[in-house]
Amino acid sequence: MKAGRDAAGLRLEAVRIRLAGRLLLAVDAAVPPGAILTVMGPSGSGKSTLLAFVAGFLDPAFSAEGGVILDGEDVTRLRPERRGIGLLFQDSLLLPHLSVAGNLLLGLPPRIRGRRARRRLAAEALAGIGLAGFAEADPATLSGGQKARVALMRTLLAEPHALALDEPFSGLDAALRGQMRDLVFGEIRRRRLPALLVTHDPADAAAAAGPVIELAAVAEDGAPPL
Amino acid sequence: MLRLAPAAIVLLLLGPVAAGLGGVLLPAFGYLPVLGGDSLSVEPFRRLFELPGLAASVLLSLGTGLAATAIAVSAVLLFVGGSFGTRTFRLMQRFVSPLLSVPHAAAAFALAVLIAPAGLPARLLSPWLTGWTHPPDILVVHDRAGIAMVLGLVAKEIPFLLLMTLAALPQTMARERTELMASLGYGRVLGFAHGVVPVLYRQLRLPVFAVLAYATSNVDVALVLGPTTPAPLAVRIVELHADPDLAMRFVLAAGAVLQLGVTGAALLLWLGIERFAALVLAALAPTGWRASRDAAARLAGSALVALPAGAILLGTAGLALWSVAGPWRFPDALPARVTLGVWMRVMPGLSAALGNALAIGVCASALALLLVVAALENEVRNGHPPGFRGLAALYLPLLVPQVAFLFGFDFLLARAGWDGRFAALLMAHLVFVLPYVYLSLSGPWRSLDPRYARVLASLGRGPGTAFRRLRLPMLARPILTAFAVGFAVSVGLYLPTLVVGAGRWPTVTTEAVALAAGGDRRIVGVTALVQALLPFLGFFVALAVPAWLHRNRRGLRVAR
After folding, report:
1. Domain extent for A119
2. Which of A34, A62, B170, B519 has its C-alpha lying 20 to 30 A from B255's C-alpha?
3. Could B459 and A85 be called an inter-chain contact, meaning their C-beta atoms sit closer than 8 Å?
4. CATH for B51-106+138-296?
5. Where is the ABC transporter domain (chain A) (predicted)?
C-alpha cells in the first residue's frame, strides 16, 4: 500500500485557508516518517484551523485549497474516518460509558477478529503503558496521566499513518508533561509516524526537535478570534 | 432518510395548524357547502355576538390571560434575580421538572381542593379562628372574576418559565454580569434587572408568548377553576361544539376566529407592557439608584415561586386524602375513617382511560423522539443548524390557541373519515408533543463535545458508529428525559383528545375533567391523582434506566 520511500510521510502542499475571502494562513511543508512538525502561534492565529483541515474537520465557514498528501496518497477529499490520521487532544476524551478496555477496543481495527484475541491485545496494550489490570476500570476513576496514556494507546491501536496533536500536553502538570511528551514522541519515532503538533508551549517545540512553523496573529485587521 | 426528518417535523407541526385555521376561517364567514353555507356572510359573527354575556367572556379571557402571564413572568424574574446562585435557587432547580410534569388539569384540581371553602386550610382554621361550623357559602373556586383560574394558571406556568429561564441563563453570562453589578453596589434584584434581564428576556420571549396564548385560551383549567356565568371565551366555544344544532357549527367557527383575535390582541397588549417595562428600566438606570436593600423584593420573589409550588404539592396530598376519606365532617382536620372503597369503585371504570392515555402517550412520544433524534443526527452529520424559521415552526402550535385550530382540523379529518381514529388522534398529539421533545433534547444533543466524534473518526469509525456507540449511550439520560417530557405533555392534553378523539378515546385527563362536573371530591381525588401520577412514571423510568445502565460509570453520574 505504501508508495516509494520518497513519498512516505505527510506533505502539506500549497495549503491556503481563507475565512470570508481573507487569507488566514498559508503552509507548505513535508513531514518525513518519525518527524514532528510543530505549529506555533498565538491564539487566533489559525493553528487549530490548520489541524482541523488536515484531519478533515474544517468548519464549512472556511474555504481551503491545497492538498494533504499522506504516504503519497492525496487524502484531502477523503472522509475523516478514511484518512488514517490519529487525533490527540488536550482532554483524553475517553468515552465515559465504556470501560478502559472498551475504549481501547474502539481503536483496535475490526480486521482483528475474535472477542478473546481482541481483549488480549487490549490487555497487552494496557500492560505496555503500565496499566495492567485496569481493563474493566471506569475511565472516570483514572488519574490525569493514566487517562492521557489510555487515549494515546487508543489512537495507536487504530494503526494510524500519521498523528495530529492539538495541545496534547497542556492539561497535564509540569512533571507529568515531561513524561507524557517522552512517551508520545518516543512512540512517534519508534513507529516512524509523521506528526503535526499544534502548541503554544516552546518546550514542546524544543522536545519535538523538528521544523517549526510560526503562524502570525491575523487578528489585527479585525479578524474574529478562532 | 435523515435529511427528510426536519421537513417532516415542520410539516407535522404546520400542517394541522394551517389546515385547522383554514377549516374554521371559511365557515366563520358562512362558507360550508356540506351544511348549506355556500355564500360568504358575517351572519355567523352576528349570531355569535348575540350569545348572552359574550363581551364579558371576551374580557374575562383577555384579563385573566394577561394577569396570569404578568404575574408568572414577574415572579420568575424576581425569583431568579433575587436568588440566582444561592442554595434556594439550586433547590428550586430540582423541583422544576416534576412540577412541570403535573398536567394542567391535575394542578387545577390540587388548587381547587386547597382553596375550596371545605378545603384543608379552612378546616384547620375552623371554627376557632373563623367561627365556621359549616363550609361557608362563598364562591372561591369558579369565582366570577376568575381569580382562582389566574392562580391555577400562574402555578402551572411558573415552572415552565423557570425551566426556560434555566436553559437560557448560561448563554447570558449571567454570573459574570450579576457579579459585576454587585461590585458596582447594586442590589441583587435591580442588578439582575439592569445587567441580565435585557439579554435574558430576548430568549424568553417565545416561551412567554406561548404562556400568554395558553392563558388566554385554555379550557381545562377554566373548566375546573374558572367562572361559569359567563365562562371564558374558549370554554364557551367548546360548549358550542356540544350543541346538537349543526347550524351552530358556523357560530363555533366564528368563535374560533374571535379567539384568535382575542389572543392576538393580548399579544399586542403584552408588547405594550414589554415596552413600558423597558422604559421604566431605562429611566431608572441613569439615576444611579442601587436598590441595595432589596431583602423584601428577594423574599417576595421566593414566596411567589414557592407558594404555587407548595400549593400544588399540598393540594395533591389533599387529593390523596380525599380519595381515601370515609366520613369527613366539616371542621375536622382529618377524615373519621380511611377507606379504599372509592379506589375500588372508580379504578375499574378508569382502566380503559388509563390504557388509552398510556397507549397514546407512549406512541406519540416515541414517534416524536424518533423524528427529533433523526433531525438532530442529520444536523450533526450534514451541519444545518435550524434558522429562525425552524424555531418558529416549533412554537407555532404553542402560539396559536388550541380552540382556534383544533375544531377546523377535526372538521377536515371528519370529512376524510379519519375523525376518531387512533392515527388521527396521534397526529393531533404530535403537534403538541413534538415541540417539547425537540426543545428538551436539542440542547444536550448540541452541547455534546464534538471532539468525541472526531476522535472516533480518527480511529477509522464512521458516522453510524458515532451514533450507536457515542451519542446514543452518552445521551441516554436526556433522550429518555425527552421521552418522559413528551409523555407528560401527551397525558395532560385535554382539548385535542376530546375534539379529535371524538369521544372514542377517553383518557385520564378527559375523564378527570368530565367527572369534576359531578363534584364528588372523593372520585375527583382518585382520578386527579392517577392523572398527576402517570407522568411521574415516565420520569421515573427516564431516571432509573440510565442510572442502572451506567451504574459503574462515574463520569456519567449527575453532578451533585
Report:
1. 97-141
2. B519
3. no
4. 1.10.3720.10
5. 9-226
